[in-house]
Design a protein that fits this description.
Number of helices of chain A: 14
Strand content of chain A: 5-15%
Number of strands of chain A: 12
Order of helices and strands of chain A: HHHHEHEHEHEEHEHEHEHEHEHEEH
Oligomer: homodimer
Radius of gyration of chain A: 27 Å
Shape of chain A: elongated
Largest sheet of chain A: 6 strands, parallel
Distance between the termini of chain A: 49 Å
Chain lengths: 368, 368
DNA sequence: TTGACTTCCGAAACCGGTTTTGGAACACTT
DNA sequence: AAGTGTTCCAAAACCGGTTTCGGAAGTCAA
């Protein structure tokens, strides 16, 4: 059908100048065996005719697409998250400078992700993949490694040795978090984490523990709870920690969603977050700014991460060995208003809570 | 360099079966002049060898890429917005069913957008574009029309006759908004809008006016203000409206960002949003849920819009006439807690405000 | 038996580039 | 003058598909 918009081809240019098309191609690809005169004439014709080579034709011969792929897992109707939007922006900016493009696809189940991966690879639509939200045992990474197809992961798996990745130093960050809380004067510091299948959840718990240990605090299982990574999980987690014998005066949360839930729960108990109880999240969600009080949280520039990962993938495609392409970055603490020095001791808090917890209804707030 | 991962080509299949490659191609493209026996043998071989045709080679001949493009304008560092993330998800889902893919690019200036458009068209990387965030006079749409390149706009321009678009019925929605506020008992209803170069901003203002007019309310310039579409703009807008002689008891805002700012401003004055002053936004931003009180707002499913627009673009590519591809949708009101019946009259409000506005510092809150 | 029509498929052209091959033209020795 | 390099470019092969063209073989009617 529809012939391509009368686009000008390399043959048009060649004919116009009176040379072979191979010669035009050589000029455009900076071969040296072309006389200055011919080169000039050809470049002029290219410019005059507004010629731009067809990516398709070029790719067919070159065996490259100059296109990278990213498959976004979209959960059960849970809206796409803002982190990814910025992440993609970062990737696109980096690629733009190099004349590459980004193919974006979404997938709504584990099987669907693999099927999409398979299709994109088999049909050769992309040169490499960016994998986000890695899991401890990630089927995508397993598949890509097995196929020996180039990719970079944003996040690690249980065995991160054989491929390129970029990740936040979760351990370090959460150890820092514990230290920060301690330096504010908190002595009992709690942690609400996520399911340990998620690699980062595991690492954040680990970092929290290491941080406490380094401060000489004894390990106390009553200060840790794992919950689904949602606001609801945060509510449940805060309830669990605060109803203990010696409740924490500060709570470190693995994600902002958890922290937002925790803050809400505290408020329904009449506790003032940032004073009576300190809560810190992780993610730097915009929503965190609108919580009352605005959430103190750790964050990483998603845009920077995207750019970084894109450049790493290009290095992979250029054949750099994977072990040179593994990097950790630190997250930055944004102090808003949900953290502060404790206003009461754990004992006092426990006392204040005793009665309120009982009269408190089962669910603290609106759903997920 | 790097030969494609030993991928199997149509020649491999042909050789394996002992037929010409053209025959294989015909089988895969459902030509009818193939005997049942040969067809079966070829399909089996295709399956056994795991053959998938190279998109590149196919496109070269077909002159199509089976790829759609979207260029996301990213302002001066202002993070990518969540609407787009869901919008893209919707597009991707629709395309997935048809075996098409989506190329995503960002552009950070007007010139950059056009340059990217030009490059993608000239190099023939995409078959058509989805244009978001249309402006009244949109250079992208002008360019695409001039090039006669297929596209669909999400939103309209000043002259929306000659191309395919999908848009929210902004007039209708804001007229509904005015009606809703009136039915709650509000008599003075204000409006904070955006710059009129943005088409939707113009339409929303228009809808607000029409709504008031239909209710028999006189037009009052003191009830309207235009501001930059940010939280800051909302603060400034609310200040402007509330410091008038006869301040509105309800404020309709063109976007959630404005509404969030307006709510903040009210709270710094000690007014209770949802009671003393009603504020309604538009966008359904997740952040709106965390505002205190949670923001009442109009919304449209971004995912649905994405799917709709994608399917329209495919119709365009199939040659459907543009005037059959123009559609308006209604936004839905999500009632949370920032609206309600007025607790005082405009006069009472004016009185309550008189002193507070004076002692109020110049800026109400943290920056944008 | 022969001519006309189908049915089915091989061969080759084509899409628009890149890369290889090879040779004409010229300069430079010896 | 013949041999040896260079320099520069035309021609052709190639990438992996799709599509056109045409012909062999089989069927059917006259």
């Amino acid at each position: 059908m529809s012939r391509l918009r009368g686009s000008v081809t390399i043959d048009d240019v060649a004919r116009h100048v009176g040379v072979a098309k191979g010669t035009v191609s050589r000029v455009l690809n900076n071969y040296t065996d072309i006389s200055e005169g011919t080169r000039k004439r050809i470049l002029k014709a290219v410019h005059d005719l507004g010629y731009q080579p067809s990516a398709t034709a070029r790719n067919l011969k070159r065996g490259r697409q100059d296109t990278l792929g990213i498959i976004i897992p979209v959960g059960h109707g849970s809206g796409a998250d803002p982190f990814l939007a910025e992440f993609i922006d970062g990737i696109a900016r980096a690629l733009d400078e190099l004349g590459l493009d980004l193919l974006v696809t979404t997938a709504h189940s584990r099987d669907h992700v693999i099927a999409t991966l398979k299709r994109l690879i088999a049909r050769r639509k992309v040169d490499g993949f960016i994998v986000t939200r890695t899991e401890v045992e990630d089927p995508r990474i397993a598949y890509l490694l097995e196929q020996n197809f180039p990719f970079v992961a944003h996040g690690r798996t249980s065995d991160p040795s054989g491929y390129a990745w970029f990740d936040i130093d979760n351990e370090e960050t959460f150890a820092t978090g514990a230290r920060h809380l301690y330096s504010l004067g908190h002595e009992r510091i709690g942690f609400i984490g996520g399911p340990l299948e998620l690699n980062f959840a595991r690492q954040r718990l680990e970092g929290y523990r290491q941080g406490l240990e380094a401060l000489g605090a004894a390990h106390d299982a009553g200060l840790e709870t794992l919950q689904p990574l949602s606001e609801k999980g945060g509510i449940a987690g805060a309830r669990a920690l605060l109803s203990g014998e010696a409740p924490p005066t500060a709570i470190l949360c693995a994600t902002d969603a958890l922290a937002i839930g925790a803050v809400q729960f505290c408020r329904t108990l009449g506790l003032k977050p940032g004073a009576d109880v300190t809560v810190i999240g992780y993610d730097g969600l915009p929503a965190g700014e609108y919580v009352d009080p605005p959430l103190t949280t750790f964050t990483q520039s998603a845009q920077e991460a995207g750019g970084r990962v894109a450049r790493m993938l290009i290095d992979v495609l250029d054949g750099k060995p994977p072990h040179e392409l593994q990097a950790l970055a630190k997250a930055k603490l944004i102090r808003r208003a949900s953290d502060g020095a404790p206003t009461m001791t754990s004992e006092a808090l426990a006392g204040a809570l005793r009665d309120r917890l009982n009269e408190q209804p089962l669910s603290g707030s609106k759903g997920e």
